[in-house]
Backbone:
DNA sequence: GAACAATGATG
DNA sequence: CATCAT
DNA sequence: GTTC
């Protein structure tokens, strides 16, 4: 072959040389997608099918033109897909490809580009506070597909019960982002959640973890998923779950759900694990021993104290409570705490602090000055029990042992009040920020931020942030050293992560 | 094929 | 130690 | 389950 014979064609076919191009499969039909892909490949470029969390050598991200115009939507989509807007990635519309092909040049005109400035601009100027979607059907005792208000906080920002130790977490009015979470996404999520629950209750924790991450990613995803391609493009959603999304899109149904969740074994085991104190091991053991219903369990002689309590309050505990009730419960605890020691700082954490419209329990963080040595928890609990507020203990509360964690059950005074789960944590001032982070969650958020820490030779717990940690697999080979963390912001900073207010910690990092 | 967070309480 | 919890 |  004489290369000189075809110089034109050569040139023409190399217009995308050195281009690593990712096409966002949103608002793009399958055929148009693959058309672009072959065009790019023929042009010497490389199509990336999935953005990797770490090494993105991607040079261009192509969006459908209508998407590029809606820069607000761009922000949502790109951020949910972990695009680092600080890198030199060119974000362009599909027109760019067309024009490049037409002119046989790899042009890089700004007219196609969505500049980073534009993005951050939009983010900052945007201040929508939309009403929260509260969509909970009271009466669903079964599959606990928890409510999910797409974290828009408008009514009650995390209210400090008492100002003291810190300040950065007081004024978190910052409007968070997307609403308009889609109808269909929710339906798929409900199905996937069934599978996640089933896997967890049989002890398949890693499979369940995979599902949870994917579910969380889809919830955080900005728009309606319409294809397999779009689904796999979401980090955390792999081929298997994307196929399930696709199947659901086509049929409104997942065969896997029938297959897995349909069996008596699965249903019973799942029911049992909903009892507080019952996990996969006991649930399955009980099933094998022939137990089938909660009634059966009451006749089971091997129930632990915790499980008896869990059984007694089974229905109430399944339920989630409105924010206002959380506030009422917290007020009771705060009053009692301050009567013991007025210098205590009492603060609501958990899903309440993240702005959720309903909460599964009440998480209260009490910070005490380092010079206070009174056993706070025993005193506090004695009071709360004498007043009849706390009705059951899920952990033994003992004097002398300087206990920090209380798990129990309480009920507000008055008629028709349900029993609610109550968690109280008492920590010294020096651990305030890490404890606040921990108990604010979410659990997935904690796990992902701790993963970041680990990869930086650090370790984050509710007690402290350690640096200089050397690991060999799981084992920590040394003790590292404690890095002072006066505020939540300082923790983010030390980990090299941009600060996120509680409302934006619903999903993983 | 390995890793997937880190810790406390119970028995 | 396994189990269950946050 | 997904990611590296
Ligand atoms: C369950 C769990 C919680 N946590 C932290 C983060 C949670 O936000 C915090 C409180 O735990 P939870 O009260 O179990 O969770 P939550 O408050 O976020 O949600 P819910 O409305 O159902 O109560 O503890 C972990 O770090 N790891 C875990 O496995
Ligand atoms: Mg909670």
Residues:
């Amino acid at each position: 072959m004489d290369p000189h014979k075809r110089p034109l064609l050569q040139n023409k076919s190399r217009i995308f040389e050195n281009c690593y191009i990712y096409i966002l499969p949103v608002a793009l039909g399958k055929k148009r997608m693959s058309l672009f892909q072959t065009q790019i490949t023929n042009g010497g470029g490389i199509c990336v099918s999935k953005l990797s969390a770490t090494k993105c050598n991607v040079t261009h991200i192509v969006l459908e033109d209508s998407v590029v115009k809606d820069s607000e939507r761009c922000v949502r989509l790109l951020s949910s897909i972990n695009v680092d807007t600080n890198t030199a990635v060119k974000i362009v519309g599909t027109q760019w490809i067309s024009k490049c092909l037409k002119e046989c040049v790899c042009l890089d005109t700004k007219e196609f580009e969505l500049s980073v400035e534009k993005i951050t601009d939009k983010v900052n100027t945007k201040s929508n506070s939309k009403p929260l979607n509260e969509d909970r059907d009271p009466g669903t005792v079964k599959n606990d597909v928890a409510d999910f208000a797409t974290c828009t906080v408008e009514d009650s920002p995390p209210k400090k019960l008492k100002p003291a130790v810190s300040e950065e977490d007081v004024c978190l009015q910052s409007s968070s982002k997307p609403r308009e979470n889609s109808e269909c996404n929710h339906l798929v999520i409900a199905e996937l959640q069934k599978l996640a629950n089933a896997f967890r209750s049989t002890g398949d924790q890693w499979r369940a973890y995979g599902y949870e991450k994917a579910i969380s990613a889809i919830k955080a995803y900005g728009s309606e998923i319409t294809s397999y391609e779009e689904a796999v493009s979401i980090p955390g959603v792999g081929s298997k779950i994307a196929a399930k999304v696709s199947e659901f899109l086509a049929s409104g149904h997942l065969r896997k759900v029938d297959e897995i969740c349909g069996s008596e074994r699965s249903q019973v085991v799942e029911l049992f694990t909903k009892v507080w104190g019952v996990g996969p091991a006991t649930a399955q053991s009980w099933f094998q021993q022939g137990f089938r219903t909660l009634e059966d369990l009451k006749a089971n002689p091997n129930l632990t104290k915790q499980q008896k309590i869990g059984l007694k309050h089974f229905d109430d505990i399944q339920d989630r409570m409105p924010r206002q009730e959380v506030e009422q419960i917290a007020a009771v605890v705060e009053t009692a705490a301050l009567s013991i020691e007025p210098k205590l700082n009492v603060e609501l954490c958990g899903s309440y602090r993240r702005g959720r419209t309903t909460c599964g329990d009440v998480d209260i963080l009490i910070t005490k000055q380092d010079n206070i040595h009174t056993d706070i928890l025993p005193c506090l609990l004695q009071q709360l029990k004498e007043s009849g507020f706390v009705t059951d203990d899920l952990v033994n509360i003992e004097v002398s042992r300087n206990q920090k964690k209380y798990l129990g059950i309480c009920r507000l005074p008055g008629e028709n009040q349900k029993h609610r789960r109550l968690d109280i944590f008492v920590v010294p001032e020096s651990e305030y920020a890490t404890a606040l982070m921990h108990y604010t969650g979410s659990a997935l958020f904690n796990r992902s931020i701790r993963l970041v820490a680990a990869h930086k030779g650090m370790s984050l717990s509710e007690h402290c942030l350690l640096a200089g940690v050397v690991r060999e697999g799981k084992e920590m080979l040394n003790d590292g050293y404690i890095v002072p963390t006066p505020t939540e912001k300082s923790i983010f900073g030390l980990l090299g992560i941009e600060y996120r207010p509680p409302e934006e910690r619903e999903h993983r990092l």
